[in-house]
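Researcher: Next sequence.
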Amino acid sequence: MAKKSKEWLKQADYDLETADLMFQNGRYFYAVFMSHLAIEKAIKGLYQERLNLLPPKTHNLIYLLQKMEVVPPEDMGRFLVKLNQASVVTRYPEDLARLQQDYTRPVVAKLLKKTREALKWTKSILKK
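Model: Next structure:
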């Protein structure tokens, strides 16, 4: 694996650890934001490795996968769409109280679990 691809993955792992810390400290919507960032960086590592190009400066996970012609399993695809949508509201919040109401501990616990699965899935593709 190329050095730049490894760096993307290293940062993805670091960001997922940060998501866990945000979760543990009750900063739930920031855990969602960091989860998206972790998957974004993992996918950008895949992009770098597969296409040998610097990934575009976008936060859109689906766009990046489409550019590589990578189709996730159906369940994973649905999760990535959901995470992609969550990225916008957590990156540019309009209503803090609403975010805190929407992203409760149980909701974010499930999201973190799926994020770990998505990271594992992305790394498995890199090994192919």
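Model: Helices lie at 3-24, 28-51, 61-68, 74-91, 96-102, 105-126. The domain at 3-126 is CATH 1.20.120.330 (Four Helix Bundle (Hemerythrin (Met), subunit A)).
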